[in-house]
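Bug #2210: C-alpha cell dump truncated for Tyrosine specific protein phosphatases domain-containing protein?
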Amino acid sequence: MPHLPSISICGVVDFQKIDRSPFTHIISIWHPNPSLPTFQRQMHIGFPDANIHFATFDDTEVQEIGQAPVHNDVLLCLEFARSIPQGSHLLIHCMAGISRSTATAMAVISDFYGPGSELESAVSIQEIRPVANPNRLILEIADEILERNGALPSAADEVFGQSLGQMNKGWGR
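Reproduced locally. Full output below:
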C-alpha cells in the first residue's frame, strides 16, 4: 500500500528562500516555454538528489485556452506520486505556488486518502500553502480520473471560494 509522502508546495520565486535538501521527489510544473530545457537542467542542478517529474501546461481553467492541462498530464503526476516510497518528501511547485501546484497536491492527497477525503485534502492544502487557490481544471481532470463525481472541485470551492480564473483571469466557465 502506498504511503503519503511529506508534501511541500512553493513557487519558483520561493527557491531562494527554501532549504532544498529534504526533497527526495519533485513534481515540477512549468509553462510551455522555449527555455524549458534550460529550466529542467537548472532543476537537476538545484535539486541534484531528487527524482523529478516534469509537467508542462499553462495555468488555465479553460481547455481551449493555451496549452491547457489534459488527462495524461494529471494522470502522470498522480502515478509519479503513487510511486514515491515511504519516508520521502515531495515538493510540488509551479511558477507562483498558488494554482497548478496546489491543485496537483490536492489531487495527490485525495488520491492517497481515497473517496470522501476531498474536503480534508482541500483543508490540508490551505494549511500547507495559505495563498493557495487550486486550478479547477486540474481538479476536474483529477476528479474524473479518481472517479470522485465532482467532489474535488466542490471541496476547493468550499474551502477557497472562487477560483483565480473566475476572479481575475477573465476566463469564463
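Output looks complete on our side. The chain has seven helices and four strands. Marking as cannot-reproduce; reopen if the truncation happens again.
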